[in-house]
Specification:
The complex is a heterodimer of chains A (189) and B (169).
Chain A (H helix, E strand, L loop, with lengths): L2 H10 L7 E8 L7 E4 L8 E10 L6 E8 L6 E8 L4 E9 L2 E8 L7 E8 L8 E10 L9 E10 L8 E5 L9 E7 L1
Parallel strand pairs in A: 3-7
Antiparallel strand pairs in A: 1-12, 2-11, 3-8, 3-12, 4-7, 4-11, 5-6, 5-10, 8-9, 9-10
Chain B lengths: L6 E8 L6 E4 L8 E8 L7 E5 L7 E9 L6 E9 L2 E3 L11 E8 L8 E8 L4 E9 L8 E4 L11 E7 L3
Antiparallel strand pairs in B: 1-12, 2-11, 3-8, 3-12, 4-7, 4-11, 5-6, 5-10, 8-9, 9-10
Classes of the chains: A mainly beta (189), B mainly beta (169).
Chain lengths: 189, 169
Amino acid sequence: MSPILGIWASQNYVRVSPSYDSIATTTVGGGGTSTVTFSSIPGTYKHLQLRYTAQSTRGSISADNVLMQLNGAGSGYSRHFVWGDGANPASGATTSATHLWLGTIASTATANIFGVGIVDILDYANTNKNKTTRSLFGEDLNGTPASSNGLLGMWSGLYPSTTAVTSISLTCQSASFAQYTQFALYGIK
Amino acid sequence: MPAGSTYSTVATTTLGSNVASYAFTSIPGTYTDLVLVCNFVKSASNSMGFTINNDTSALYSYTTLYNLNTNGTTVSSNRGSNDTTGYFLSYGAHSTTDPNIYIANFQNYSNTTTFKTVIGKGGDPSRSVGTDVTLYRSTSAISRIDINTRGIGTITAGSTFTLYGILAA
């Protein structure tokens, strides 16, 4: 290619900015951890997506729940769910809660089994809207133990604040996050 | 030269003929998650399935939550254990103008420490909508995904399947 054509090509190359960026990722090390926090979240995206594979250290029971707080707020959340355990679909709601719920995960009681979830927080930086979250979650245990078939479903949540989300804190309801648990936060433009 | 992308197309196909299964092979292990996006028609009204790494041993189990009713009045949840294939919810056969849709997420697919949990959601135009989760009890990294009809009918020519890779920081 002649230098002139090369220059022309470089000037006319369409530089497309990525729309889906990785903001931060946390992988839990040996010994586990009680809390995973994403802080100083930039307000330059349109939406956030949190993707996780997680396991609880709750050794006696094969399930635990992933909880979330935004901006450190410890009250005022409301949440709704629909889920199925392989036999009985169910739904419910809670208001004036201390946490949002993201989903149920497996525990170290069932080795190597991790629950997964995908959480969307739309318009997270908008200071004219309260924040609504939606999660899709699931874990299957192959019917072991027989009383714990697994669970999957969806949660929606309301964080009744127009403040932009700058931090996300994640905890287990009953224990800690086990080693190899991973939370990955993405920004969508 | 553009910067590396977080959300990339790994492979895509539009079927040129009716097939009983379609495979994504030689999947690179360089991403964090895989997302499989399906838009398809099939010859029979039944759920779809998938296998990982061409493994057809009884290492799959699943839980489902769905509505399967033309008037939308019934919600159900089912499960299966020790199966030889994973589970994709999509009951309708349908026409090329009314395809089934399905999106499956294979999270942390390339790690060699944990079993693999796959979560998906889908539906068809007239009968079903829902979500499902499959456990594949192997710590092997995923390098191949076969989409199948669970032995009933075929996937129709013109159906599209696209595999995306998501790369975490």
